[in-house]
Amino acid sequence: MAGGQEPRENQFLQDRGPFSSQAGADVGDAFEIIETAEESRIEGLSEADRGRGRKSASGTRVAVPESLQRLLKRGGVPTSLQQLQELEQQQQRVARIASACTVSVRIGPAQGCGVIITDTGFIVTAAHVAMRPGKTAFVTLSNGRQVTATTLGMNRRVDAGLIRINPGQNAGEPWPHASLGSSEDLVPGMWCIALGHPGGYDSRRGSVIRVGRLLEVRPDVIKTDCALIGGDSGGPLFNIAGELIAVHSRIGNDVADNLHVPIDHYDYAWDRMAAGKSWGFLPNFKPTLGVTGNQSDEVARIIDVKEGSPAEQGGLLPEDVVEQFGEKMISDFNALKDAVADTMPGERVPIWVKRGATRVRVIVEIGRDG
């Protein structure tokens, strides 16, 4: 989870959008055509946001030499020392320009990453970094400057989240942003570049760069050998053309088995996320508190606390009446269930309960069911 923890695959640690359809295009020969095609697909945003597809100094797309076109489109191993050196230089160019739009995201004590994708400040990240709609986030840019942002919607089923930098913080200038690719034509063996601010922004270090290849491509997840660690969640994954193809989600069974959200999922759900909607949960990561209650009762009275549950570990007791769960006032047991469903496993939530004649505050770390 955010805050230096990553959700593991088997254990929890912690109108369409501005997306292009030019996967596989000859980036070196058709830059202007690509940008025009990308701009034509930007629907459902303001006129200012529609301009995101313009060719500009803040984009991340980098021309790919003819000698690297095969590695761009199909992956594989360099066939000569010269090609290996050219690949290394290409990766360095992408990393250098992509660092400008890779940001650190902090919400309360929790920390993760994100990547700016529009000149008006939309940021894609992981759902477990954004947590829930309407929260204030503090975004640290590549130069160390900090700005405020607001979380929007999220598709928790694939761990996709959306944030927007609050307007009026850049003197009318566009934000540096990533050039968007597509996850539609990705295949195992393709080279990729992962960026992030694990452990939070560090001016002495800058963004951390890792180079690797795609190991597995599925509709809902991409696996790579780009080693992710705590705090990388929400950061960007680029191809060697400088196009954003995925967002870091979580660590699998090994540090070299890393899972990412395919970028096209942000396109599919753009309207809902931009409107602040949230839904679903990752398979085997449904949040749970571990209490039962009477749904017909007029208050959220706890009948039973499951042994070994997050509720028991946090100090909740039978007959406690839950009055507030985090920022939400709780009227009955159904309201409590809804509030728990709107959290992420690993999240620490303050809960206020009425215990006899006393109001008691406890902190519970939400567990997972599955």
Automatic annotation (TrEMBL):
Residue span, PDZ domain: 287-365
Region: Disordered, residue numbers: 1-25, 42-62
Keywords: Hydrolase, Protease
Molecular function in Gene Ontology: serine-type endopeptidase activity
GO biological process: proteolysis
Basic and acidic residues biased stretches: 42-51
A Pfam family the protein falls into: Trypsin_2
Similarity annotation: Belongs to the peptidase S1C family.
Record protein name field: PDZ domain-containing protein
Organism field: Roseiconus nitratireducens
